[in-house]
């Protein structure tokens, strides 16, 4: 899976990185390599958090021969 990231250097020379595909997923680093390593970890953390939140919303409505899964995403904050 590929994600788009935006890298900027702030006035202090630190690199600020945002994953534009995952709102609110951002980090920084003293070097470009550190910032990229940090955004990789941040992306994994964001995805894990969102999957956990989504799994809490899964409701099984019938069993065993036929299964219907309803995922209510209305209460999930993606920021």
Keywords summarizing the entry:
79 residues; alpha+beta; Double Stranded RNA Binding Domain; 3-stranded antiparallel β-sheet; 25% strand
Describe what is shown at a glance.
The protein has 79 residues and is an alpha+beta fold. It contains one helix and five strands; from the N terminus they run βββαββ. The chain has a domain at 5-56: Double Stranded RNA Binding Domain (2-Layer Sandwich).
Description of the molecule:
The protein is an alpha+beta fold and 79 residues long. The chain has a domain at 5-56: Double Stranded RNA Binding Domain (2-Layer Sandwich), CATH 3.30.160. 30% of the residues lie in helices and 25% in strands. The protein has one helix at residues 32-55; strands spanning 5-9, 15-19, 26-29, 58-60, 69-71. A three-stranded antiparallel β-sheet has the order 1-2-3, covered by helices on one side. Strand 1 (5-9) and strand 2 (15-19) form a beta hairpin. The longest helix has 24 residues, at 32-55. The protein is elongated. The relative contact order is 0.15. The mean pLDDT is 83.
């Amino acid at each position: 899976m590929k994600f788009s990231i935006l890298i900027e250097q702030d006035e202090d020379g630190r690199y600020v990185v945002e994953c534009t595909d995952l709102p609110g997923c951002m980090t920084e680093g003293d070097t470009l390599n550190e910032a990229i390593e940090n955004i990789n970890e941040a992306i994994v953390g964001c995805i894990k958090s969102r999957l956990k939140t989504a799994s809490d919303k899964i409701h099984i409505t019938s069993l065993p021969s036929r299964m219907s899964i309803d995922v209510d995403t209305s209460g999930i904050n993606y920021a």
